[in-house]
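User: I'm preparing a small set of examples for a lab meeting where we compare how different chains pack in three dimensions. I only have the primary sequence for this one, and I'd like the structure in C-alpha cell form so I can line it up with the others. Please keep the answer compact; I'll paste it straight into my notes.
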Amino acid sequence: MSHYSDAENTADSFDEIAGGSNDVMLRRRRIWDPDSASITSEIKDLLDDDANSLVEEDCIGCPLPSTPEDENVLETEMSDVLKAAVLGDELDITTLAQNAAGQAEHVVRRLIQVSWNVCHFNKLPDWLQDNDFLTHGHRPPLPSFRACFRSIFRLHTETANIWTHLLGCVAFIGIAAYFLMRPTVEIQLQEKVVFGAFFAGAIICLGFSFMFHTLNCHSQFVGKLFSKLDYCGIALLIMGSFVPWLYYGFYCHFKPKVVYLSGVCALGITSIMVSLWDKFSESAWRPFRAGVFMTFGLSGIVPAIHYGIMEGWLNKMSQTSLGWLLLMGLLYIVGAVLYALRVPERFFPGKFDIWLHSHQIFHIFVLGGAFVHFHGISEMAMHRVTVGQCEIPDTLIY
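Assistant: Understood. Below is the C-alpha cell output for the 398-residue chain.
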C-alpha cells in the first residue's frame, strides 16, 4: 500500500502552478490515519503482493504452503523488519515499507520451511510431473535442502519410496561392516573383496535412491542431477551382484570367469553412460529405462546356462545356487515391469497415491532381490570353502 496518490488538478490550479499547462500531474502525500491502518496491515499487504509473484515464479500454480498455526513465526519475521526503524531516532513509514518489501521473499521462503501443504498433480511444475495416475499428495517445490530432508517425516507420495531404501541402505551398511570386519582367519581377504563389490553396489544404489526421492522436489537442476545418480546406482547394483556369483560359480574355471566379468563391466559402463543422458530421466522414457536395466540383468542367463552345463543340472549345489539366482531375477523383473506399466495405479487413478503404487512396489522388490542374492552367494561361498581346492586347476592365460 502506498501513501501517495496521483490526482489531477483543475484547469485553474494548472494555470496557477504550471503556467497553464494541462499536462502537469501532481503527487500529493496522503496523511496516514493510525485509526484506520496499522503497520502490521501495511506489511501484510506487501507480503501478500510479493508472495503471489513468488508463487507464479517458483511454483507455477502450486499453492504456497499454508501459514503455520503458530503466528509467532510471522511475528518473528516482522520484528526483524521493524527492528531497524524501532531502534532509530524516529519511525519513518516510507523506509519501513521499503524494508518490508525487500524482506518479503525471505519471509515467504521461511514460511515454506515451517509448513507446507501437499499438491494436486495438475498444480505441480512440469519438472515434477512424473506419474499422472497419482493425483493427490504430491510435495510442492521446496526451496531448501533442510525443508526437503524434513519432508521425509511427512506423508506424501514419496514417503514410502524414501523409507524403503533408506532402511535398506542402513541394513546393508550394518551387514557389510560386520562381514568386512571379521578376522582374516574366518573370512579371507579375497572373499572380503568379492563380497565388498556386492555391498558397495547395494549401498550406493539404495543410498542414491534415497537421496533422489528426498531431494527431487528441491529444483529442476537438483532433481535431474540425483535422478542420474539414482540410475547409475541401479547399474552399479547389477554389476556388484554379478561379481560374487561369477567368482564362486566359475571358481575353478579361470577363463570363462574373466570373460564374463569383462562382459559385465562393459555392459555396466554402457548402462551408466546411457543413464547420464538427459532424456533418459524423462517420464516418457520410463519403459526404455526399465528395458535397459532388464536387458542388463537378463544378460546373466548366458553364464547361468554355461554354469548349469558345466556343473550339471542335477547337481544339488547347481540347483540351489541357480534357484536363488532365478528368484532374485524374478523379483527384479516383476518389479521393473510394474514400474514401467505403472500398475496398479493405472487401473485405479487416485487410489494408490500414498501407499502401494508401482514405484513403491518396485523398491520393495529391489530390496527383496538384493537380500535374496546375498543369501544365495553366501551359500555358494560356504560350499566353495567346504569343498576346498579345485581338483583340476585351469591353465594360465598368456
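A couple of notes for your slides: The longest strand covers residues 4-7. DSSP finds 13 helices and two strands in the chain.

User: Perfect, thanks.
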